[in-house]
């Protein structure tokens, strides 16, 4: 089968080296090179975006290339020095031992070649003279065998040490990455997708790669010295070195290379994208839709159509596609023949002066030329990958710097030092103020000190990474008194959930302010503020941990109190789930372990088949059960005694009506003066009990008041309410006629 052609097109250059078939119609901007300073390469189904300055047609040894490499390496040095410091601190003895063992290993080729040449020379002289210096021969053979033994022993020794050291390095950087990543806020996560690629194994690979380059350079120079020394015996040492270097150097002559450049790669071929999307439909989560929708054949047909439309366009990663291009070129064919230059050199030596050379020297020259060629190839590969590796290290340490740039900055005001005051003592009145008084149910007897007071003033907000002009909140204003039960209603996308997220300080408002107990929310220490809040939203998930932890994490201090956890489970309606699960509270949800079976099926009546069948199965819960367990976590949080605001964002979509009613009733009855905000689409018992209803539309609070006040207004709320209420009203004959 023929290899698909990579098809290369460079949008910014006039000449194109490989014939193109532009099938990348999908992407809007990349093809046209509209972005200032961006150069676009089309490689198969991918587009590669590069900085215009960085791509030059150059040989590997061109001066600009080396200056470029030097400048970039300089930037990486700081990160590498930091890495060296960190790994040295993990185990100084191991680091030093491994370094010297690796350095020794890198000279292995030269040492062996030296003794081999010696043995051959003694034999050649012996065969020529009819007498062999047995002592010298035995010594040379013995020394070589000893060297082989030593180097192999060292390899075993160093491999063992390396494995030990590897696990320490990986443990260390797993810990570091976990710490950094858990400290990322939501706006940063939206901007840092590529950081997900950094893993502790990648750090280890980078470390070994950098070490390999240092040792490789040392080994390469020792080989060059040896080859030069050998060649000198023929009076053409330098020339011989050149014949050995010709092939590796010339094979480095490049097509535009981006292997070490900052780049963005994007799949832009519409047929390829469609194929990938269709392939994605095999995922388990789509199976029910696909089977019930009877669309299996449609998917297969569409996939084949896209495949046919894609034709021979390469789907390889662009880096690999570029490599294929190099291998397939006429230049590569020419360069490969240069492999034989050292042999031509030896033949020329014999022709020009048969008495000036000998077979052992010729043999050694050939051997060393081969070994030099291999070392160069490895070195080139390592140098090419060096930047990628160094970049991993540099980004690893950048994570720490990025943390300092988080937009959601911590304050230092403790929540407890700012208790809510019931009266609104502020000079500036917000656009819409609370019209209703705090209900007797909500306010506690000692003056509503338990509830949080909230004022939102002209808050605007857009999501990072969202469309620039799309405002999720647009001058939203309202105020909530301590202890009020507030219901937020409004159409889809009107900004209800965003409001809850801003109250939880997951994002900062772009403009305007949120006052908590009269102080700007950004002044509060986040941990202290969040301790005073219990949030329950659709976005809350179950963790891949035990049921006990899933609930207990609402109040970590009570984690070991099973009665407390069971009580919270009961309030969240999750007690029956725990009873049903085999391991009760200790049941692990979605365990992240590794299970793999090869040529074993759980239906096999063999010991392995039975073993597989008996392996722990993943415990799963339904959507409604998940919401109950998450609700139980929120009730667990109430036990801390610190909660002053309960924010509930439509957690009831998967709950049955009884469970939903229980949840609302439980929160209402247990709130003990806490301010409660419910976001909901369902009118009914909730809005009936609300002290304040906020009705949102397009990022603004357009109406506020109690149910009866809003109904009197006959505005948006009234309209939304009537849509639901009508369904239960007996239809009038006149309407039926209409
Ligand atoms: N993570 C996000 N990134 C970008 N835009 C978002 C994000 N989340 C929400 N939006 C946008 O912000 C606006 C407000 O969304 P929000 O989720 O607050 O609405 P909502 O009133 O809660 O809607 P619903 O009733 O459907 O839950 C919408 O236009 C939405 O598309």
UniProtKB/TrEMBL annotation:
ABC transporter domain residues: 454-723
PANTHER family listed in its UniProt record: ATP-BINDING CASSETTE SUB-FAMILY B, MITOCHONDRIAL POTASSIUM CHANNEL ATP-BINDING SUBUNIT
Organism taxonomic ancestry: Eukaryota, Fungi, Dikarya, Basidiomycota, Agaricomycotina
Assigned keywords, A-Z: ATP-binding, Hydrolase, Nucleotide-binding
Biased composition (Basic and acidic residues): 1-12, 20-34
Name of protein: P-loop containing nucleoside triphosphate hydrolase protein
InterPro entries given in the database record: AAA+_ATPase, ABC_transporter-like_ATP-bd, P-loop_NTPase, Type_1_exporter
Region (Disordered): 1-34, 426-449
Keyword Amino-acid biosynthesis in record: no
Keyword Nucleotide-binding: yes
GO molecular function terms noted in the UniProt entry: ATP binding; ATP hydrolysis activity; ATPase-coupled transmembrane transporter activity
Gene Ontology CC, one term: membrane
Domain of life of the source: Eukaryota
Pfam families tied to this protein: ABC_tran (PF00005)
Comp. bias regions, Polar residues: 433-449
Record SMART domains: AAA
Species this chain originates from: Dendrothele bispora (strain CBS 962.96)
Gene3D superfamilies assigned: P-loop containing nucleotide triphosphate hydrolases
């Amino acid at each position: 089968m023929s290899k698909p052609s990579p098809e290369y097109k460079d949008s910014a250059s006039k000449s194109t080296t490989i014939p193109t078939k532009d099938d990348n119609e999908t992407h809007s901007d990349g093809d046209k090179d509209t972005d200032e300073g961006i150069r676009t390469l089309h490689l198969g189904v991918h587009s590669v975006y590069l900085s215009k300055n960085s791509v030059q047609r150059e040989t590997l040894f061109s001066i600009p290339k080396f200056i470029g490499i030097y400048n970039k390496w300089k930037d990486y040095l700081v990160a590498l020095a930091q890495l060296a410091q960190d790994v040295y601190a993990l185990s100084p003895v191991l680091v030093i031992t491994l370094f010297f063992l690796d350095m020794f290993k890198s000279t292995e080729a030269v040492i062996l070649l030296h003794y081999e040449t010696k043995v051959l020379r003694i034999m050649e002289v012996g065969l020529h003279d009819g007498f062999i210096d047995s002592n010298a021969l035995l010594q040379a053979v013995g020394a070589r065998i000893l060297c082989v033994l030593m180097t192999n022993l060292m390899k075993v020794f160093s491999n063992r040490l390396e494995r030990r050291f590897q696990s320490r390095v990986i443990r260390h950087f797993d810990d570091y990455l976990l710490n950094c990543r858990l400290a990322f806020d939501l706006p940063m996560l939206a901007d840092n997708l590529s950081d997900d690629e950094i893993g502790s194994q990648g750090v280890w690979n980078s470390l070994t790669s950098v070490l390999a380059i240092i040792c490789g350079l040392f080994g390469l120079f020792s080989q060059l010295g040896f080859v030069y020394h050998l060649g000198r015996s023929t009076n053409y040492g330098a020339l011989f070195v050149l014949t050995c270097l010709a092939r590796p150097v010339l094979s480095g002559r490049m097509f535009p290379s981006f292997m070490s450049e900052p780049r963005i790669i994007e799949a832009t071929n519409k047929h390829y994208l469609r194929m990938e999307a269709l392939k994605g439909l095999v995922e388990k989560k789509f199976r029910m839709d696909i089977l019930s929708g009877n669309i299996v054949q449609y998917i297969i047909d569409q996939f084949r159509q896209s495949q046919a439309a894609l034709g021979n366009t390469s789907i390889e990663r662009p880096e690999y596609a570029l490599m294929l291009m190099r291998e397939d070129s006429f230049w590569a064919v020419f360069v490969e023949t240069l492999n034989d230059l050292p042999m031509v050199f030896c033949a020329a030596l014999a022709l020009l002066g048969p008495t000036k050379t000998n077979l052992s020297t010729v043999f050694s020259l050939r051997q060393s030329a081969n070994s030099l060629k291999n070392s160069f190839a490895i070195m080139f590969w390592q140098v090419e990958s060096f930047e990628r590796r160094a970049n991993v290290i540099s980004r690893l340490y950048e994570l720490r710097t990025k943390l300092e740039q988080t937009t959601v900055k911590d304050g230092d005001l403790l929540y407890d030092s700012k208790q809510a005051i019931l009266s609104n003592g502020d000079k500036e009145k917000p656009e819409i103020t609370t019209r209703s008084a705090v209900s007797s149910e909500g306010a506690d007897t000692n003056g509503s000190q338990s509830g949080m007071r909230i004022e939102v003033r002209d808050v605007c907000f857009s999501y990072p990474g969202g469309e620039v002009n799309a405002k999720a909140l647009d001058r939203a204003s309202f105020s909530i008194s301590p202890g009020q039960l507030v219901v937020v209603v409004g159409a889809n996308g009107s900004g209800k959930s965003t409001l809850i997220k801003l109250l939880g300080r997951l994002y900062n408002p772009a403009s305007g302010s949120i006052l908590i107990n009269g102080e700007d929310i950004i002044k509060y220490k986040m941990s202290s503020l969040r301790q005073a809040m219990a949030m329950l939203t659709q976005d809350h998930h179950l963790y891949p941990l035990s049921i006990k932890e899933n609930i207990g994490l609402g109040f970590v201090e009570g984690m070991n109190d099973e009665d407390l956890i069971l009580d919270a489970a009961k309030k969240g309606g999750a007690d029956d789930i725990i009873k049903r699960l085999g391991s009760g509270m200790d049941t692990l949800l979605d365990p992240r372990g590794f299970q793999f079976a090869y040529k074993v099926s759980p239906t096999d009546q063999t010991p392995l088949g039975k073993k597989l069948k008996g392996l722990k199965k993943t415990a799963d819960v339904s959507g409604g059960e998940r919401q109950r367990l998450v609700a139980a976590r929120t009730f667990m949080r109430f036990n801390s005694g610190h909660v002053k605001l309960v924010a509930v964002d439509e957690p009831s979509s998967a709950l049955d009506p009884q469970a939903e009613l229980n949840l609302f009733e439980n929160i209402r009855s247990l709130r003990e003066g806490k301010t409660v905000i419910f976001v909901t689409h369902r009118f009914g018992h909730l809005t009936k009990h609300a002290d304040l209803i906020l009705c949102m539309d397009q990022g603004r609070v357009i109406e506020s008041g109690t149910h009866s006040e809003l109904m009197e207004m006959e505005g948006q709320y009234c309209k939304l309410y009537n849509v639901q209420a009508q369904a239960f009203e007996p239809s009038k004959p006149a309407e039926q006629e209409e």
